[in-house]
Amino acid sequence: MTFTFRPLDPLKDAVLLHSWVTHPKAAFWMMQDAKLEDVEREYMKIAADEHHHAYLGLDERGAPVFLMEKYDPAHRELVGLYEPQPGDVGMHFLTPPTDRPVHGFTRSVITAVMAYLFEDPATRRVVVEPDVDNKAVHALNEAVGFVPEREIQKPEKRALLSFCTREQFLAATGVAA
What we know:
The protein has helices at about 15-20, 35-45, 105-120, 135-145, 165-175; strands spanning about 5, 50-60, 65-70, 90-95, 125-130, 145-155, 160-165.
């Protein structure tokens, strides 16, 4: 599967995003009760933030098929929870609900997300902090080279702090970034 990325348009994409982030499958996204205006407001905030960016992943036809956020962990999400290194990039991704799951889709998505992040030569390590109970994401993270470091307490959740270097990604996936 081949994907491309485009910056998320908070107003134009809000209806689609709202359907994704409020679905029970997206419980770990913590927006279950969000109204459309809440989603617009949250992504307008991200669009205005120099340290946080949101993108839609597009399939071969140009249709949005997943959400990816990247952030600077020295300034967002993980401030004070670990010692950031130069070249650290934080990442979140969300695949939407579907009635017809495609085998290997989510793994293809996280592989594409990681390859995209490592296209930037300044990216040395990707940092994630999924909920400790999100076992499905832990397995996906491991499949692309993430190594858990420790549990951390964020304001909204208990998280598993994990890291993946370019070399770990290549070793796990065979994908040169």
